[in-house]
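Crash report, auto-generated. Payload:
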Amino acid sequence: MWSLVLRRLLLTLPTLLGASLIVFAMVKLAPGDPISILMPPDAGKAEIEAVKEALGLDRPLPVQYLKWLERAVVHGDLGRSIATRRPVVQDVLDALRNSVILAVASSMLALIPGLALGTLAAFQRGGVVDKVVSAVAITGVSVPHYWAGIMLVIVFSVQLGWFPAMGGPSDPGIGPYIRHMLLPAVALALIPLGVITRVVRSAVLDILAQEFVLTLRVKGLYTGSLVRHVLKNASPQILTVMGLQFGFALGGSVLVETVFSWPGTGYLLNIAIFQRDMPLLQGIILVLSTTFVLLNLAVDVLQSLIDPRIVRG
Amino acid sequence: MSVPAPAILTAPVAAPVATSYWRLVSRRLARDPATLIAGSLLGAIVLAAVLAPALAPYDPAAGSIRMRLSPIGTVGHPLGTDEQGRDMLSRLLFGGRMTLLAGLTPIVVACLFGGVLGILAGYLGGAANSIIMRASDIFYAFPAILLAIAISGALGPGLGNTLISLSVVFLPRIIRVAEAVTVQTKSLEYVAAARASGAGSWPIVRYHLLPNVLAPILVFTSTQVSLSIILAAGLSFLGLGVTPPAAEWGLMLNTLRQSIYVDAWVPALPGVAIFVVSMAFNLLSDGLRDAMEVRG
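Recovered output after restart:
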């Protein structure tokens, strides 16, 4: 198993390098001279050159990239935020914790009903239940989740007053944390719920069409045990879609976190963009994409463990 | 006196049974009620957006301090007014132009370039395949929404930058699908037969590959339209897309968000519009998939 993990890890290295190159290039392509933000408008030419040299901005781009990458990988140093002067790594990791918790919660909110609805629809193919589930699923995938967030605030915060409209938990403890997290988690779960339902339905239908299911049925197996057999066989596909949807929740949280002012990476990213705080922007995207790549790696490895027939790369 | 033609020749010849694939697809589409409803709804919305200057009762940018946040059903403003007293109906009509433009253009661009690159990668194989596929793999390191926001965030707000960032998001996805179906089709026996009978590259691509890879690529592209529209409006919602005072659904949602404590329903409207369009595209895409008999 460890050789498998190692092999997959080696294969993700080029992807991670490429991603870091994109993150670096993105900021270099951004309009505006980073020096002009740092320096007073009346700074002389010599002073500007001195600052450039001190920051390494006078060197050729490939050298700058390698230096940046070396600091990030070897020392875990992503530079300092231009606005707050705090180390970027600290802020990003704090925010990432909140984002990951939100993403896990919304993935669960999507997975459990999605699994149940998709299986139910496949077993009742063509029936009323199937039609209703399909309608629910297509509604789910079509919802602009930021708008769903606003609607949840209108109903549950403004009208009913059950949940806080925004912000992170001000009081310590798990209760307030969950109360603040529930609405954003539901908003973020809608699209994954639709996607998972659709994938589970079609995966289960594929399995149901296989001959071993017929054998099980002929044997007189109860539907309950049949479902267990079918889901076990559909699990690699379900795992793949789960991984992708967790990634969606991590990335999509930018919009939902903005609606709810949830103190995660999305909220931080929004701040970075509007203050044009490029080191912070770079750091957030690098950390999020690395998380995403490692997550996909984990999904791949898990898949091979569940079903040894799947050996890729 | 001419000899009457033998009856067998004058009898009406039965219509050829072989109908073209595309005719079959359109006939199936025309028989599917969900597709028909979604299609006509979209047709109406696109028409309303195109004809916005003629249909809109007011100037979408003209506000009135006295008429701020009128509720739905106000005389003269059937859908109410926004936080600056601008007519919501007019703004929704004009906003549709922007949202549709920002959501559909990247899909068309990505489909054209992604389709060509993917088919090339699949057909040529070897080094060309490696370069194209590895380059697009890198973009898979980012969740779609994050990539769109990151590029737009770095480039700055504006419609042009939205189009660039969304095209970059969808390009690798379409390349991947186009490459996969091309590789699959290329390995089929009739392609080998064509090659064995001396067909050159261009005839093989034109007559054997293209007709068979087009449907899967189109179906996949159609599944991405609703995401593109949600993302395009989402970028404006964050303040990264179309800039004020232009009307755009996501942007309207953003500026009206502060007013939910005054009136809950007018701020909901732009989101309803995004939702309806995105759902119609999804229904259409499902219908297309069934009609084209593409699995996935």
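Post-recovery validation: The two ends of chain B are 66 Å apart (CA to CA).
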